[in-house]
Design goal:
- There is one protein chain.
- A 6-stranded parallel beta sheet has the order 2-1-3-6-7-8, with helices on both faces. Strands 4-5 form a two-stranded antiparallel ribbon.
- The chain has 2 domains: 5-138, Rossmann fold (3-Layer(aba) Sandwich), CATH 3.40.50; 144-210, Arc Repressor Mutant, subunit A (Orthogonal Bundle).
- Helices cover 52% and strands 15% of the residues.
- It is of the alpha/beta class and 214 residues long.
- It is globular, with a radius of gyration of 19 Å.
- The longest helix is centred in the C-terminal third of the chain and has 15 residues, at 182-196.
């Protein structure tokens, strides 16, 4: 039986809190166990509820969500916090991740991205808004030239595996989605790493995005 993940929503806008709560109420694997609109209440709620994931607005009125993040992590250094923001400013992103947040989402992201972020963060894995990821890649590598977007010589199956990797899928997820054995997934990944000239999944996703493959 699938365990239900508990989520604490911290945002000073009631409409945002209720909107997220309404979205998550339709799922059987995620449950909103608490809401807060200011830092002191958020920290108290975390102490009391010990949620699996916290969705934390980066600005709570006159308060900084980053200060609240620090306080929550002082309570529990392993707390899984995903920052919510209307701002895709790179400084906010880097400060959030540097302070210990597992993720950074934009309030304009789709419902699917939000749900996937909660599931991903609950496993202790980092997650970023696709728009934020794209900005970071552009800063690091620049936009690819048109003749570079064709990318390396990957077959259709390898591209399917690569796209799933970029979405955060595990080997087991890929095996199930593409009807492969675990051994075949590992072999495909090794082939992809060799073609792209990378050593791991994160580098593969970044390089694939740079080349316009995903």
């Amino acid at each position: 039986m699938t365990r239900t993940l508990s989520v604490l929503i911290v945002d000073d806008h009631p409409v945002v809190r209720k909107g997220i709560a309404s979205l998550l109420s339709s799922r059987s694997d995620v449950a909103v166990v608490g809401e807060a609109d200011r830092g002191v209440d958020a920290v108290a709620a975390y102490r009391r509820l010990q949620p699996d994931v916290v969705l934390l607005d980066i600005r709570l009125g006159s308060e900084s969500g980053l200060d609240v993040l620090d306080e929550i992590l002082e309570v529990d250094g392993s707390a899984k916090v995903v920052m919510l923001s209307s701002f895709d400013d790179e400084e906010y992103v880097m400060r959030s991740l540097g302070a210990g947040a597992l993720g950074y989402l934009l309030k304009g992201d789709s419902d699917g991205i939000l749900v996937n972020a909660i599931l991903t963060a609950s496993e202790g894995r980092r997650v970023l808004s696709p728009q934020v990821t794209d900005q970071i890649i552009v800063r690091m590598f620049g936009r690819p030239a048109d003749d570079d977007r064709t990318g390396p010589d990957l077959d259709d199956m390898q591209l399917q595996v690569l796209r799933l990797v970029a979405s955060g899928a595990t080997n087991a997820d890929i095996a199930e989605a593409l009807f492969m054995s675990d051994r075949t997934v590992k072999r495909r990944l090794s082939e992809i790493f060799a073609v792209l000239g990378v050593d791991n999944r994160v580098e593969a996703a970044v390089e694939a995005a740079r080349r316009g493959l995903i």
